[in-house]
Amino acid sequence: MARGSDSSRQSTPSRARTPQRRRPPASKRLRPLTSPSSTRQRVGDPINPGRGKRRYRPGTLALREIRHYQKTTDLLLRKLPFARVVREISQEFITEGDVGLRWQSAALLALQESAEAFLVHLFEDANLCAIHAKRVTLMQKDIQLARRIRGVVAGLG
């Protein structure tokens, strides 16, 4: 490796070469000029830059959601996506000569009510299975056990 001679390097520190300057006090410093476009708020900037959104302890919002949904009686699944799924499943039972099934809105609503009631009851039973296993996390095996314990009477076939 070819290197330059050691005499070409200087041993004096860089601060020794440049004189120290004192900074003026904060009141006498000039502010940088800013254009109006840079002071305008941009998309994605927080509304309160100094303070973020309030954070709750883990589980607080979940408990609030549980209380909210236990009080309400409205449907949790959206009506149109549920109706599309029902129509898609009903197409499988139509023979080749048939045109298709037409659904009354009251029939779709009744089917959705019963489906949601079934799912809520299943999740309640599965949650009891998880608590019995000394867990708070709902797992697939809890749902399978709840379905197995219910048996054919609950409409599982």
UniProtKB/TrEMBL annotation:
Q: Where is the Core Histone H2A/H2B/H3 domain?
A: 58-149
SUPFAM superfamilies attached to this UniProt entry: Histone-fold
Location(s) in or outside the cell: Chromosome, Centromere; Nucleus
Q: Which intervals carry biased composition (Polar residues)?
A: 1-10
Going by the entry's taxonomy, the superkingdom of the source organism is recorded as Eukaryota
Which keywords label this protein? Centromere, Chromosome, DNA-binding, Nucleosome core, Nucleus
Question: Which Gene Ontology molecular function entries are recorded, alphabetically?
Answer: DNA binding; protein heterodimerization activity; structural constituent of chromatin
**Metal-binding recorded as keyword:** no
Biased-composition ranges for Basic residues? 18-31
Q: Where does it primarily localize?
A: nucleus
Q: Where is this region: Disordered?
A: 1-57
| GO CC, any one term | nucleus
Subunit structure, interactors included: Component of centromeric nucleosomes, where DNA is wrapped around a histone octamer core. The octamer contains two molecules each of H2A, H2B, CSE4/CENPA and H4 assembled in one CSE4-H4 heterotetramer and two H2A-H2B heterodimers. Interacts with the inner kinetochore.
State the function annotated in the UniProt record. Histone H3-like nucleosomal protein that is specifically found in centromeric nucleosomes. Replaces conventional H3 in the nucleosome core of centromeric chromatin that serves as an assembly site for the inner kinetochore. Required for recruitment and assembly of kinetochore proteins, mitotic progression and chromosome segregation. May serve as an epigenetic mark that propagates centromere identity through replication and cell division.
Similarity comment: Belongs to the histone H3 family.
Q: What is this protein called?
A: 3820_t:CDS:1
Q: Species name for this entry?
A: Paraglomus brasilianum
